[in-house]
Every structure is written in structure tokens, then in C-alpha cells.
Amino acid sequence: MSAAPVYGLLLSGGASQRMQRDKAQLTYAGEPQLLRAWRALSAVTDRAFVSVRETQRDDPLRAGLPQLVDTYDAVGPVAGILSAQDAHPDAAWLVIACDLPRLDEATLRSLLTQRDPSKEATAFTSRFDELPEPLCAIWEPASHARLKQRYDSGSYCPRKALIQGDILLLPAPGAALDNVNTPEEFVRMQHQLERQS
């Protein structure tokens, strides 16, 4: 049996409460983070989509990109993942968060090269706690049943679904998955990336 095609899902529907502004619009080296992430994701997948809440559909930054609107309550990333799986149930989904400014095309290609389609998911380990990182992972069609069952029972944490699942866990890719959640972290990351560019 051939492996499912891999579609890309860029999660951009979060409320960004700690940041106090939309993390997708934060600018690094002169470009909004959403577009930086989109460029890397669309370069390595057969098709790619931006995951949005209904209220974000017409946002100028998101409106020009192919969208998948959440069809589940706003309960975090799992709403976007399940909505994508429902829309294209025969696809595997390379899911990334939009708050990973160090994530690049090479890291995504490494994840895809090491993918095991016989598992529920292929994920990197977090360099901070050695647990699976759900927001830069390939979710195979087989993961849908577990995610949906957990959602129906009121459990919305995609990391716990990976912990419980039959997954391939890869070593952390250095600092590529470091995220940015607060204004202070944003300023630090901006300076770091500008020094590198």
C-alpha cells in the first residue's frame, strides 16, 4: 500500500494571549512570520493550507493563502488538525505552528525524509523536556481516530495524543522548534535572527 500524500497545515488560529498581539503578524528580518512559515511549508508539501478561525478568514495577511477554517470549537491546535483531517481524510498532515521563527525548509525536509507512514505520526522530540513536539509533526490518517476520541472526551492536548500513540519519535532538531510566546521573547528572537541574516 502506498503512503498517503503529505499536505501542509500552518496553524495560525491561536489567540496569542501572552503575546498580546497576533503572532502570525510578528515581523522577522522584514517579513511576517506567517509568510516565512508558509514559504517553508508549501515548498515541501503537495498542497498546503493555513488553519484559521472563522473570524480570521478575511484578515489581509491570511486572505491571500489557501485556508482551512476550523469546524471544531476553539480548543487549541487540535481543532485545526481535526478540521484538516476531516477535509482531506486520505492525506497525512505536516502540521506546524506559526510561532516557530527558526523553523526552516531543511528541518521540514528532514522530518519528511524520516517519516514512517505505518505509524500514527512522526514527530521531533522537544529539546526542553524530551516529549513529542506536536506542532511540527506529520500526523498520518491513522491518528484521526485517537484525536477524535480524545476530543469527544474533552481532552484537547495533541502532545498527549502523541504520547499515547504509536509514533516515530526523532531527535530534537537543535533550536529549530524554539517558539516565541511573549513580547520579551519576540524582541530577543528578532535580534538573533537579524544578526544571522
Task: Chart the SSEs and their pairings.
Layout: E1 6-11, E2 27-28, E3 31-32, H1 33-44, E4 47-52, H2 60-63, E5 67-69, H3 77-87, E6 92-97, H4 105-113, E7 121-125, E8 132-139, H5 144-152, H6 158-164, E9 167-170, H7 183-196
Parallel strand pairs: 1-4, 1-6, 4-5, 7-9
Antiparallel strand pairs: 2-3, 6-8, 7-8
Helix pairs in contact: 1-4
Commentary on this structure:
The chain is 34% helix and 21% strand. It starts with 5 loop residues before the first strand and ends with a helix. It has seven helices and nine strands. It has one domain (6-196): Spore Coat Polysaccharide Biosynthesis Protein SpsA, Chain A (Alpha-Beta Complex). The strands form two sheets. The protein has a seven-stranded mixed sheet with strand order 5-4-1-6-8-7-9, sandwiched between helices. It has a two-stranded antiparallel ribbon with strand order 2-3. It has helices at residues 33-44, 60-63, 77-87, 105-113, 144-152, 158-164, 183-196; strands at 6-11, 27-28, 31-32, 47-52, 67-69, 92-97, 121-125, 132-139, 167-170. Strand 7 and strand 8 (132-139) form a beta hairpin. It is α/β, with parallel strands linked by helices and 197 residues long. The relative contact order is 0.18. The mean pLDDT is 92.
